[in-house]
Amino acid sequence: MSVFTGTGVALVTPCGENGILFSETEKLISRVADGGAKALIALGTTGEASTLTPYQKESFVKFVHRASPLPLIVGAGGNNTQAVAQLCADAEKWGANALLIVTPFYNKCTQQGAVEHYRYIAGKVGLPIIVYNVPGRTGFNLLPETMEKIAEIKNIAGIKEASGNMVQIERCLRIQTDVFCGDDALTVPAMSMGAKGVISVAANVAPSLVSRMTDLAESGDLLRAGAMQLKLLPLIDALFSEVNPIPVRAALNLLGIDTGKPRLPMTEIGEQSLIALKRAMKELDLI
Fold this sequence. Notes:
By secondary structure, this protein is of the alpha/beta class. The chain has a single domain (6-219), classed as Alpha-Beta Barrel (TIM Barrel). The chain is 46% helix and 14% strand. The protein contains 12 helices and 10 strands. The strands form 2 sheets. Strands 1-4-5-6-7-8-9-10 form an 8-stranded parallel barrel, surrounded by 5 helices. A two-stranded antiparallel sheet has the order 2-3. Helix 7 links the parallel strand 8 (156-161) and strand 9. Helix 1 crosses helix 2 (54-67), helix 4 (111-122) runs parallel beside helix 6 and helix 6 (144-150) packs parallel to helix 7. The radius of gyration is 18 Å and the shape is globular.
C-alpha cells in the first residue's frame, strides 16, 4: 500500500528570530489540508531542515503531528549513515508515519554505497522509507538500476525522483516500487505513466489547484490535468526562480502567513523575482 497518493506538501518551516512560529505553522497546515493535500512532509528541502537545531526539528515534527491527521513524512537524510539511522528512530517517536531519506551528499558514495546506506538504515527502523534522489542538491545521482536493488530492501516504500530527467523517472517507473514526482513541473507527465503523486512545493501556495490537478491525473482525466499543469507553470517557474525555498517563503508571506526570513545562507527574494512571483499569483487569483 502506498504511503500516499496525489498531493503531498513539502512544508515550509515558518521561523522568526526566536524560533519556529507555531501559530503560522498552524495556518499553513490548515491551508494545505483544506486544499486537499493527502500528506504532509516536514523537515525536507523546503523546510530548511539543514539549518534547524535538533530541538527545533523535534518540536516542529511533534507540532505537525498534533495539528493534523494527515500522513506525516519526515525528512531524515544526511551523509552520516549512523546519524541518519538515529534521526529516523527519533522521528518515529515524534509521530512520523514514514521517512524521506535523501541520498548521501558531500562525501557522496558509490552506487553500491547507496544500497548499503539504505540497507543499514532500514534495518534500524520500522517505518516505510521513501528514497529521495535530488542530484542538483547532493551531487550524486541515484541510478534507476541502483534503486531497483534498494527497492528489494525491507521497509523501502518508493522513491521521490527529483532529478528533473523524465527518462530517468520513466526508468524508475519500470521498477516494482512507488514513484513520487519531486518536480512540480513534471507532475502530470509522471503521473500519466504511473507515478503515485507529487511531493510539492507549489502546494504550499496553491494547494487546491495542485490537489485538483493530481486528482484529475489519478482518475485518468489527463487532458484536464495537463491543462492545469500548464496553468500552474508560471507559478512553478516563479517558485523556482531562485533557490527553493526563497520564493515560496515570499509567496506565503504575500498570502498572510508569516514564514519569516529565509535562514542563512539563504537570502530574501530579489526584486525581479518578486515581481514575477506576484504576477503569477495574481494570474491564479491567489492575491
